[in-house]
Model the fold of this input.
Amino acid sequence: MEKLKVGVVGATGYAGAEICRLILGHPQAELAAISSVSFEGMALSSVYPAYAHLCDMVCGTQEQVLEKSDVVFAALPHGLSQELAAQCMRTGKAFIDMGADFRLESEEVYSKWYDGSFADKELHRQAVYGLPELFREKIRGKKLIANPGCYTTAVPLALVPALENGLIEPAGLIADCKSGVTGAGRKPNQQNHYPELNESFTAYKVAAHRHTPEMEQTLSQIAGQEITLTFVPHLLPINRGILATCYGRLKVGVTEEQLRKAYEERYQGEYFIRLLPEGKAANVKYVRFTNFCDISLFVDSRTGSFIAISAIDNMVKGAAGQAVQNMNLAFGFEETAGLKLVPPAF
Amino acid sequence: MEKLKVGVVGATGYAGAEICRLILGHPQAELAAISSVSFEGMALSSVYPAYAHLCDMVCGTQEQVLEKSDVVFAALPHGLSQELAAQCMRTGKAFIDMGADFRLESEEVYSKWYDGSFADKELHRQAVYGLPELFREKIRGKKLIANPGCYTTAVPLALVPALENGLIEPAGLIADCKSGVTGAGRKPNQQNHYPELNESFTAYKVAAHRHTPEMEQTLSQIAGQEITLTFVPHLLPINRGILATCYGRLKVGVTEEQLRKAYEERYQGEYFIRLLPEGKAANVKYVRFTNFCDISLFVDSRTGSFIAISAIDNMVKGAAGQAVQNMNLAFGFEETAGLKLVPPAF
Amino acid sequence: MEKLKVGVVGATGYAGAEICRLILGHPQAELAAISSVSFEGMALSSVYPAYAHLCDMVCGTQEQVLEKSDVVFAALPHGLSQELAAQCMRTGKAFIDMGADFRLESEEVYSKWYDGSFADKELHRQAVYGLPELFREKIRGKKLIANPGCYTTAVPLALVPALENGLIEPAGLIADCKSGVTGAGRKPNQQNHYPELNESFTAYKVAAHRHTPEMEQTLSQIAGQEITLTFVPHLLPINRGILATCYGRLKVGVTEEQLRKAYEERYQGEYFIRLLPEGKAANVKYVRFTNFCDISLFVDSRTGSFIAISAIDNMVKGAAGQAVQNMNLAFGFEETAGLKLVPPAF
Amino acid sequence: MEKLKVGVVGATGYAGAEICRLILGHPQAELAAISSVSFEGMALSSVYPAYAHLCDMVCGTQEQVLEKSDVVFAALPHGLSQELAAQCMRTGKAFIDMGADFRLESEEVYSKWYDGSFADKELHRQAVYGLPELFREKIRGKKLIANPGCYTTAVPLALVPALENGLIEPAGLIADCKSGVTGAGRKPNQQNHYPELNESFTAYKVAAHRHTPEMEQTLSQIAGQEITLTFVPHLLPINRGILATCYGRLKVGVTEEQLRKAYEERYQGEYFIRLLPEGKAANVKYVRFTNFCDISLFVDSRTGSFIAISAIDNMVKGAAGQAVQNMNLAFGFEETAGLKLVPPAF
Done:
């Protein structure tokens, strides 16, 4: 059977390069074309020598990617995906957007946080939000998929079962998140210069990060009521991984057993979610290079707090892996195809 | 003038070694004797080659330290300080305990969290809790000082001004803390074996860490009412530093300006507290090797949350530096003597 | 077709766990049994939570491994493989030894560096040295294979083409090597305790490392004359990788072009060797998690020095990957089966 | 007594910031003015928040520094120091250059490696090379000092006693060096972007680094004959430190004892050189934040090689600390003034 032809726009950024890696190992898809504005004419393996002899494909233009591919993944700065998506729709290609352009349903909210507008409202109506564990049925067979951000995958997966079963208060939710530095991209800057980041740890964009409204949108849809979230991201001096420590207030009388049961039932059959045994805390290291989301649950009976901790690899479940999972759903492949990675343990 | 003679029991652990470093640079104190059970007969510089030619003093016994010193710092596993403190009191020495034996005022609470008892209740009544920015006047001239733990310094300093001015709700406080690995001590174990900790990040002792009652004791004393705290510590793959991200609910009508003013007034004149300008987030890197506690304040007006973030070096303000600060208070020295360190910036 | 049954003795050490990972992805082999003295009765995924849901096989005894497997990989402290190998030979199993017991041909040399003896000289005569790029034909179809150490793979691969073509002097060779810390194993010790190793760098076992005679054996066999080597290993604060910077003196009149041509010809067709373009230096990062050996060549015409730098992942080409490559040769599989890994680039 | 007024041109780079730190702790000198092209008008503590409350001096212009200072330290890109030095000489200020402009005595060599020329040959004749342990008497009282580079401090200190006593062959010397990343400066670039450098290790500028002729100049002066050196630098994923592993061939009959004795005698009384006991290898960690150079010696009697390993902090003994040591010599202060730092051991 002929393989699905995959194109990657923005292939030399971290998310783009990671999509290439996953597609190279996918049984039903193949890399057809890649593009890069900064590295046009250079092989991907010149930019990432780890890929030498494995992916020496040369970066072309966005147009070439569009021409050669059945599905286009776009890893672009926000604002640039709308026109590209429109082109894909016109030419019958599928489009999976790694950026924020199609994630928010409300143009008002998008405009407030991203200072942009919806160029084509009809296009936005076609887009589905690609968080398969929460919205799987909506994604199947779709052509225009907004792939969630990293925090916006980790936090809802940690909170949803408690919220949709009414086991915690919908008010006062807090997400204290810690991310590896690849989340900030490949472009060098002062903060992520090795001597500055090494041996450091800090919060950033405190209560002001753009992923906030996206998480609130997901949580509100699940809870069936408007949810607000206090969100504080931190920057870890490691390459990969997000740990989301989420706090909620237990509803009166709710037990740890009830909570654990709700999570077990909700995520039963979800290949990519690993609910950890009681007492074990999720660790970013154990999900590195995989599409897993590990979740651990705790109750502080002294204070009435519920604590759910999720860990993902920000570049896989938080970006490229989830995008491939969405592609699998869109094209009717096995949802786990190309994603059953056995990671190095150290 | 003759210098104060300082002895360190448990000098080869991280806290002990750090006390030695600070005393070597103290204008009014000198290292008189050190002891170590594991390294008796060896020079401190054999254990820490960084100290070669700077501190080649040989480790002796606890008895030798007692005999030669005016003040004894003890960095021992909990339970072992009580008898040593009693000996010091009998012989007129000052005693500064780096461990937990004298930190909790309630024997019941101590017994619950540490599974021990107060050998001599009178001795416990003499002990003062050495967090100078909160309890300075009680510490002056005292002979028996319980030096706080690391988390238990960072969290109260972040929350106290808001709490004592009634600007946040006393209920529902959360401390999401992240610590460098030296906090776990010098003894090798699996979790802190380099290949395992490197590129990892996880929570541990979730809602079950022994520093919890100590923080609650301090916060309750300041607030004048019983406070409980949800406390989740995490382990950072860096050597030094604690970042405490503390969450509270704003009382109705309280503004960020009011909060900032309360902190400015409360900490005015405190040399070791640096309140950061609006919008700047505290970073463990900027307090490394110093006795500073950096604090940054944020209000999430969308959700009504107050966020105070403090950063300390767990081995200095969180251990050895604060102990020297306490010694200075106890002996009437300038409080900052030996502690005005200009740290390397990178 | 039925898959080859693979057993791993010492599966919870780093090398053993890495063999398990590779076998899980091998198209013609399957993990049949694993053993561990320290973790008998525990799932491999309890020891390495990264493997949860992917390899929950429980560790049994060495006897169980022997019984259930067609080929046994042994990752044991030196001295313990000889009896196990003998058992395998008696029962018709193949045996691939990750340790040093069968690597040295001379019992005298083994005895000098390892303070042991050859229990069964006939067994040692059956053993082949499993460095496929140098001794491929000897390995095919064999039952008893001594898998080389990590340094002993990196250094000969860097020097052999220059040496066997007589382009450098056989005397005065130097190998200045730097290894990631997983090479020291999973057992915690003081040197590899995170706070001690972090931000450190040092040489160890200077001119006294046990891999020295093994490298000299290989180089001497290739050169057809006795070679001695000055070998200085260093410990890098990273998890994986060996960089071997090897120095030799150019024979009079030899040009860089000749050298480069010799390497190109020697390694033409070798899938796992990537000769880097002129001016590019090998980097351990680019071979991480793969079975590649990257090699870069330099000539210092000012001094007459030849510099060959090789990079491998000490746990893959330096251990588990090469062992699987040897298994492939021994059983007539495609040599690259299970080893065409596309690694994460960051 | 009035303190010496110190100015730093290029104060916001790593070397400049480190000079500021050291001068802040110097008993006989004080920071009078600092300049920065990129951060003019900003406080040094805005660039380095670790310095908040400790050095809030604002960066001015180079002219302001010249006006206010008795001695000017310049941390500038090469080529820019010559005019500044001339100005200092005209106005009677001392000038200590952190760059390469005055390090090489031969304009031909300078021109070949740096592609520049000597603007004022007389000025170059006035300059002394500031490596105190080798050229102390020439430095005393001088006004124009070329501070050596980092590698060019570590390598000669490791080799000189063996070379000047004729214990090793002057031909065939090799320096395999490894440097922390601060040596590459504060300006972000792709190679030193955290995700790229983290978990990496590579050589760079193999046999082509500009420090080569500087080391050869020093070694030749000491040996009294022309010395060439094979020099391969590597980049370590740590912030600070250089480890220089230097190889030479023993002259016939020379013993380890003779070598050790030569080093002991040569460096007797040198406060900043710590000769390590037999069998101990130098480690960059143990010299961090100090002006020490640790040296360890090894003989490989099997191969006739001599191995000398030196460790320095590239920012202190390899830059700012040595510059202060030179200032002390130039102004007749105690050579160790401001440099007897007790470093943190972890």
Observations:
- Chain C touches chain A at residues 14, 17-18, 21, 24-25, 48-55, 182, 199, 239-240, 274, 276, 280, 283, 285-290, 292, 294, 315, 340, 342-346 (CB under 8 Å).
- The mean pLDDT of chain C is 97.
- The longest strand of chain C covers residues 242-249.
